[in-house]
Amino acid sequence: MIKQILGKIPRKHSKSAADPSPSASSLATSKKSEGGSKRLSNTVNESISAPYSVSNIGNNQENKFKNSRSNGNSIPSSYEALPSFRDVPSSEKQQLFIKKVKMCCVVFDFTDPTKHLKEREIKRQTLLELVEYVTSANGKFTEIVMQEIVKMISANIFRVFTPQPRENKLLDGLDLEDEEPAMDPAWPHLQIVYEFLLRFITSPETDAKIAKRYIDHSFVLKLLDLFDSEDPREREYLKTILHRIYGKFMVHRPFIRKAINNIFYYFIFETERHNGIAEFLEVLGSIINGFALPLKEEHKLFLVRTLIPLHKPKCLAMYHQQLSYCITQFVEKDCKLADIVIRGLIKYWPVTNSSKEVLFLNELEEVLEATQAPEFQRCMVPLFQRIASCLNSLHFQVAERALFLWNNDHIENLIKQNRKFILPIIFPALERNAQHHWNQAVHSLTLNVRKLFYDLDPELFKACQVKFEEDESKEKVVREKREVTWKRLEELAAKNVTSNEAILVHRPPST
């Protein structure tokens, strides 16, 4: 028998670029669920020591359980445990399974920890038995059984909640990593229901052709709505379940992609508030990784119209790691998309948000690493105009991160090959940093980059230096003329302080 269920799932995501599928913890969880009922929980220490010795519930009591949903106020009068599966003949196990499923359609109120303790424990033990039954099933699930399963799952997990998205706290300047996520008090039951759903979907005894009638578009949409849950444990289960549904029910794949796309649109252009964007992107990372080549036009449109605009919201840091992985997957599959992606990053570049600029520079390096010379040449002018601005940033992390691009061998080679176009763009920024940037690390890195260009092409370097000095001289003249004009204006204003006459100042002739 199952002795425990899954433990607490951590809040933070540690998804790496080498793991395109849902996070390692969730996938490991799902793989174990397919192999048996050995997963344990840190929250449940008691095992099912023995079956309850209570008589079967009659037909009248079954009707009470059927489609029942309680908020803790109206519990069926005879909510008692049914016999264990081991205590009935094999011929009666399916009927007992259906009775137990119907029994678990009753939903308890967990806001009051003192109410219905006995009934809640009976339901918990019954759910654990159902998980074990599904895991060890050795015969195809019938349509009637599937129908009852989906009814029970829907009664338990589909609910209306009013989340307070984590992104709200971003506006208040709080450290979201230290913020405790809200935990659903009903998790002792919800967790087992999710485990039951996961094992039902992954079971070889679940015929997708029949199950798709009940795990249909309506079911999928409601499941996607649950991704806005504040409880990270729930989102982790949902991520794994959605991934398994996408893999098993091929007929639902276009619909799932479109539905997630619509959620992204609403998030980007309406609310900028959603708790499950990172989890959606983790699932999509696995899906994108499996796209066949050449890429379909609809997939390219998804990149341009959805993934790239996802850089716009203020709360980008909450899901940037997963988004960057999806973007890089596209470029690695089709190098011609690099120009589109880089121009998209430039379009949404956060010129007034230094922390987001560092994220953009991190992603830019990953994209450039997968970029080939022809695509690089198409976008290098606007790209290095933006990088030049970053080099002169007063925020040392932005300037430092931009200079770190030269530490990447592939990017450095691309720059060297196109130095005649790139050096004139960034030379003024390098010179200003070398002359008076306040941060010593930025100053040192700048000198290294200058030396690299000088050693590579001294003539080009000197030509850029001459041009920079000429431009600086012209700029100095312009500044002096501007100062003279302001000074004359102040003097005239001081003379006419008591007069209401307008003051006309003639600009000096330009040279």
UniProtKB/TrEMBL annotation:
The keyword Hydrolase does not apply. One of its GO terms (molecular function) is protein phosphatase regulator activity. Residues 1-72 are annotated as: Disordered. It holds the Pfam family B56. It comes from the Eukaryota. GO terms for cellular component: cytoplasm; protein phosphatase type 2A complex. Residues 17-30 have a biased composition (Low complexity). Transmembrane segments: none annotated. Residues 39-72 have a biased composition (Polar residues). GO terms for biological process: signal transduction. Its main location: cytoplasm. It is found in: Cytoplasm. InterPro entries: ARM-like, ARM-type_fold, PP2A_B56. Keywords: Cytoplasm. The B regulatory subunit might modulate substrate selectivity and catalytic activity, and also might direct the localization of the catalytic enzyme to a particular subcellular compartment. Belongs to the phosphatase 2A regulatory subunit B56 family. This is Serine/threonine protein phosphatase 2A regulatory subunit. It comes from Handroanthus impetiginosus.
